[in-house]
Amino acid sequence: MTQVLYILRRLVTLIPVLLGISVLVFLLIQLVPGDPAVTLLGSHVTDAGVAALHQQLGLDQPLWQQYVSFLGRLLHGDLGESYQYKSSVSALVLQNLVPTVWLIVVGALFAVMISVPLAVWAASRRGGVADNAIRSIPLIGLGMPAFWLGIMLVLLLSLKARIFPASGFGTGFVGHVESIILPALTVALALVPILVRSLRAGLLDVLQSDYITTARSKGLAAPRVVLGHALRNAAVSSITVLGVNIAYLIGSTIVVERVFALNGIGYLMLTAILNRDFPIVQGVTLVFAVMVVTVNLLTDLAHASLDPRVRLA
Fold first, then answer.
1. Which of 56, 117, 268, 306 is paired with 67 by a 20 to 30 Å CA distance?
2. Residues 245-298 pLDDT 10s
3. How far is the CA of 75 from the CAs of 192, 279, 286, 298, 301, in angstroms?
């Protein structure tokens, strides 16, 4: 019952957050220099044409009235109409959302699969050769930009080894899996240095606890002590670190999608920015913000499930 109340309380707190996001997204687009009507008319721009298009798009209304109209459409799932594609922004976002979700989810899974064994190995051999080698990973990994990692993976595993496709999202489930591995690995390698450092520090702290000493005194094997007792408690803080960095990486998927020519919403947004297609920029920005809020919510729920004290706070 306590967990249900905690979830309900967290959902209620999201309402003002989402409302604030809608205000910020709306105002940010208003601050972008340039007139959408002038952009749409191009070489055929005239004062009468601009005025007529302002009336058609509702740009002649007061700012507060434009926001009320925007919020009303938003509550009905309507993100407006693209200037470039002449179609619904909501449909375009849904069409391009799948590759981005695959990229984020698979990238997070790869990051966990790589980071947990490395952190456990380093913490179990504190001060040893393996520990010192693994501790150098954050120093090296944090200095590698995502676009460079992506290009190197394409050169090594696609163009030379010919193991994975170099670009695109493939067709069918198998094609999607093959095509998403390199982009997801690029995302994961950006997360691994931070996760390894966080989880290793958490494990070292937990391994010095009294209950770990008691478990060892009972004759439990070292792997069982680390994996069965220490890892769960050490993972609490690392889950928060993972959630924060996934939320941060959601915005940076634009770069990764560009490198691998994934037709995700990041790629869609970049194209819209170049073409000054403001409704798409507004819609995708809003979707990115909602994704960040969702990741933070799931992180809090995972944290609460591992640490009951959070639900009682």
1. 268
2. 777 777 777 888 888 888 888 888 888 887 778 888 888 888 888 888 888 888
3. 38, 16, 13, 23, 26
90, 120, 280 from 213: Cα distances, Å: 56, 17, 57
Q: What is the 8-class DSSP label of residue 161? A: S
Q: List, as one string, the DSSP characters of 85-124.
A: T-SBHHHHHHHHHHHHHHHHHHHHHHHHHHHHHHHHHHHH
CA 116 to chain centre: 20
Per-residue model confidence as pLDDT tens digits over 106-159: 988 998 898 888 888 887 777 777 777 777 766 666 667 777 888 888 888 888
Give the tokens for residue 272: 């819209």
Q: For tokens 């478990």, name the residue.
A: 215
CB 268 within 8 A of CB 253: no
Model pTM score: 0.80
Q: Does 93-312 carry CATH code 1.10.3720.10?
A: yes
The ranges assigned to domains in the chain are: 2-75, 93-312
